[in-house]
């Protein structure tokens, strides 16, 4: 188990690639990671919190407050808890919010509070990915020290072919495993 004892926040946004997050979550847990899922409201339109909770063994966090019981989900506590944060899939909207500090959902506030390394796996149509504003936001995120897991080239949900597919879960897992193994060898 290559991620034994690692605490990972998995941020999921509103992309058709959210279905891959379930496979990624399963792989992370299988490698020994403790994973807390934070999902945007739009993300819940693509994959259910029930599925993600069953795979992680933890309640999924989406809102600042629990439904009708006054429970507060602290983005600050999450940011301090994690050894890594992974946003996969990351939409153009979320990239823009992260790059510009627009803290209007639990995922972005958690990102802004994170003290750990952050990995971002963009997923969107090729024209959105290549748009200058998206590329600028990615550059800003890199300047902040985030690690971008470049999207793959292939068939997209739109039916077009090009760069924008979220990397496969195995590739993303290997990126995290490699990061933690290099960190251990320092």
Automatic annotation (TrEMBL):
A Pfam family: Flavoprotein
Domain Flavoprotein: 6-178
GO MF assignments: FMN binding; phosphopantothenoylcysteine decarboxylase activity
GO BP terms in the entry: coenzyme A biosynthetic process
SUPFAM superfamilies registered for this protein in UniProt: Homo-oligomeric flavin-containing Cys decarboxylases, HFCD
Protein name: Flavoprotein
Top-rank lineage group of the source organism: Bacteria
GO cellular component: phosphopantothenoylcysteine decarboxylase complex
InterPro entries linked to this entry: Flavin_trans-like (IPR036551), Flavoprotein (IPR003382)
